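Whiteboard transcription, Tuesday session. T.W. wrote the structure tokens on the left side:
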């Protein structure tokens, strides 16, 4: 399972154009375990310099980057929370995503109708925000109704939960997104099950050909979608010749970073270096499960080293050689630690599972 980012915004702002650009850029779908993908869902490789460096010293036959899913969600219209347009379906798709990539429009194209009849990204963001907040309010109200019924049984835990939900409801009804509310870790975990829309991490992108976007207010990453779609057709050599900087890669990284995940690496005895994604705080046994469900069950122990230690040590003169030489070398130097199933994986760990 990849983590997913939903592309959200009003109609005709460029969502599908961005989706096409993101998913066209040479994704090696075959290297991912799931190949049947809905037309609105695309898998994208996460750019990763650490993986490149590890691969330089390990020299594997194959390099497989981590991936995230992008979902092209149908355009939202005012009143979506009441079921207008594709309202409910739209909001349901957002609920299933781990993060939101919100798109606002600042390109001029008279042939493409603008919902507001003018460029006004701030207003677009407001409309989307209101719809998401209204939907969350509805979810909160339903949750309270249900919990109050349960509370008749005098269950203390239910009372605590009601208080947390009411605190959230109070802020949301004042127009505050849940991601902006000061919540303790405990409170956050209590409300997790509801998958609130405004609790999701968000990246805001402005579809524009302008460099200076200060007039539209802060918080946006500027990107020219039309241009990106054209660039996504070029091959790596053409890209190099034209000295085009890779804005899409930067956007993908931005999305990956707001998801607040960590990356670990496997080298499969020198055959394949691979980057995989994990929730912060996960155990090495969870990590094994990301690779293969069998690995989780049969997990015995793991050998672990930080990517930097591996790369730096192996880069010393005499450190390079056959594919497994790098790993052998750090092992002989006693730099690899052996860990049991409860070890908490750190960002950048290179792991060899023993099953
Ligand atoms: N001029 C210009 N047209 C764009 C740009 N992005 C999208 N469009 C056009 O706007 C129309 C709507 O784009 P689309 O991606 O389908 O919008 P969506 O409804 O948000 O998915 C299409 O005809 C696109 O070619 C852009 O950056 N510049
Ligand atoms: Mg579209």
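and on the right, the sequence the group agreed on:
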């Amino acid at each position: 399972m990849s983590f997913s980012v939903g592309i959200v915004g009003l109609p005709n702002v460029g969502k599908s154009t961005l989706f096409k650009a993101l998913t066209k850029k040479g994704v090696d779908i075959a290297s991912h375990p799931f190949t049947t993908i809905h037309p609105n869902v695309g898998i994208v490789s996460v750019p990763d310099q650490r993986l490149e460096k590890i691969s330089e010293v390990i020299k594997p036959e194959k390099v497989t980057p981590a991936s995230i899913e992008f979902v092209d969600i149908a355009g939202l219209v005012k009143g979506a929370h009441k079921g207008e347009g594709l309202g409910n379906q739209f909001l349901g798709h957002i609920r299933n995503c781990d993060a939101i990539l919100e798109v606002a429009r600042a390109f001029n194209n008279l042939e493409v109708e603008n919902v507001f009849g003018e460029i006004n990204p701030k207003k677009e963001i407001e409309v989307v925000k209101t719809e998401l907040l209204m939907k969350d309010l509805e979810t909160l109200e339903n949750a309270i109704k249900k919990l109050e019924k349960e509370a008749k049984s005098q269950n203390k835990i239910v009372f605590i939960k009601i208080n947390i939900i009411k605190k959230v409801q109070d802020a949301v009804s004042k127009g505050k997104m849940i991601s902006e509310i000061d919540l303790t870790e405990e409170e956050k975990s209590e409300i997790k099950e509801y998958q609130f829309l405004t609790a999701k991490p968000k990246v805001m992108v402005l579809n524009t050909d302008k460099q200076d976007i200060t007039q539209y207010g802060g918080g946006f990453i500027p990107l020219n979608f039309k241009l990106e779609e054209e660039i996504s057709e070029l091959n790596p050599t053409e890209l190099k010749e034209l000295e085009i900087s890779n804005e899409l890669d930067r956007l993908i990284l931005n999305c990956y970073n707001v998801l607040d995940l960590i990356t670990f690496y496997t080298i499969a005895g020198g055959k394949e270096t691979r980057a995989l994604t994990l929730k912060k705080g996960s155990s090495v046994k969870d990590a094994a499960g990301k690779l293969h469900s069998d690995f989780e069950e049969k997990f015995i122990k793991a050998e672990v080293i930080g990517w930097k230690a591996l790369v730096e040590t192996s880069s010393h003169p005499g450190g390079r050689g056959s594919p497994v030489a790098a790993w052998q070398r750090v092992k002989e130097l006693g730099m690899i630690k052996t860990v049991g199933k409860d070890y908490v994986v750190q960002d950048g760990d290179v792991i060899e599972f023993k099953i």
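Someone added at the bottom: Residues 15-16 surround magnesium ion (ligand 2) (CB under 6 Å).
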